[in-house]
Fold this sequence. Notes:
Layout: H1 9-12, H2 33-46, H3 60-72, H4 75-90, E1 99-108, E2 117-119, E3 124-133, E4 139-146, H5 151-165, E5 173-176, H6 183-191, E6 195-198, H7 213-224, H8 237-256
Parallel strand pairs: 1-5, 5-6
Antiparallel strand pairs: 1-3, 2-3, 3-4
Amino acid sequence: MRYTSDLTDAEWDLIYYCFPKPCKKGRPRKHVFRELLNAIFYLVKTACQWRNLPMHFAPWGTVYHYFRLWKRNGLWAQIHAHLREHVRLVEGRNRHASAAIIDSQSVKSTETSDERGYDAGKKVKGRKRHLLVDTLGLILFVMVLPANIQDRDGAKQLLAAFFARSPRRRVKHIWADGGYAGALIDCAKKLWRCVIEIVKRSDLHSFQVLPRRWVVERTFGWLGRYRRLNRDYERQAHTGEIMVYLVMIRFMLARLGRP
């Protein structure tokens, strides 16, 4: 039985070599990695519980085991970065981005979440996803924090983690909205030699497509197509970040796997 979230042959060929090869010792693997990925993408697309995965997939305990294993060893983030660079090359861009856009999205979370807060501006009790995307809308870094943390404070944590992971990051220019104005601009210039440009609205009472800022809004629209991200169901914030990476992995595979 095939679901719309299943990988095609062309999409699987793009990432099959990213997974570990079968070990020569021990019991042979019962479930192939492609089958496990189809189950994980089904869960992300439909927002079902792990225990309620259809019987056509591997047992839910096996699927969750590999999901958690690849979360801990960083394989999901590596696959995401690999596909992002591939998409940029296909689009005629440099492998690494030199400009980015930053923004946040507040979403409701469940009572099982370890940390959550209340966003008074959006009137949402839950968590806030802070995204840093390139000019194509592809995610460079994501950080999930309680919703009561201000945008500029969350952006400072995100940028610190982003540049600390790879000191040679080439991002030199970042566009943001008015919520990021203030001390963050000087901090970015001093610590990371990066310029943050604030894109403001000229008219507060009418709809406008703001330069550069619309790119990250489109990325939020892409994420909204997957029901698992319509609300933060995860206990750990890091798992919520991995879910965002999974959605973008599936999105980029569909983009690269087209004839």
